[in-house]
Amino acid sequence: MKKLKKSDLFYWFFAVLPFLISAAFYPYLPDQIADHWNSAGAADGYSSKAFGLFALPAIILAAAVLVKIMLKIDPRSQNIDRSPQMRGISLWFIVILANAMDIFVILSALDVRFNMNMIVTALVGIGIAVIGNYLPKCKFNYTMGIRVPWTLASESNWEKTHRMAGPIWVAGGVLIAPMIYSYAIFRRGN
Predict the structure, then answer these.
(1) Pairing of strands 43-48, 32-37
(2) Global pTM?
(3) What pLDDT shows up at residue 190?
């Protein structure tokens, strides 16, 4: 039997952590909890406590398993191994997102006031910038990166596309920052 690496143990721990957090808070939450918010940050969708706390972690855990499988069965898996940063981003993005969303749902159910829109926008901006930083280093594969028919048809096209896209993604992530800043000013009333 193959021994699990320490990084895999951490990955699976954080993949199931939303279930543990949800189970710990389950007795303290109301029977109906918000599970969707509109663009203004107001809750506009509700579900039962059990569904709201455990459906998203279950979906995210399934996605985490699927990503692990896809990275392993990719015909170009040797190239994925040569792109460790993108491999790590592909794996960890899902579990970080699951943990953040689980915490947001619980805080909302506990009636803790926070600006979800600003937090989510910041996380998206950071995520886009981080992915952009590593896109030029992403080797040709079928699982991660800009996978359209023409980049998958030519390794040269793949490399040129990713080299060009990287700085654009970093800039896109950075350009989200003024949205956060302007919203903070708006909230202060200035």
Answers:
(1) antiparallel
(2) 0.76
(3) 63
| Mean pLDDT over the full length of the chain | 87
Ranges of each domain in the chain: 10-188
Distances (CA, A) of 6 to 28, 79, 148: 34, 22, 34
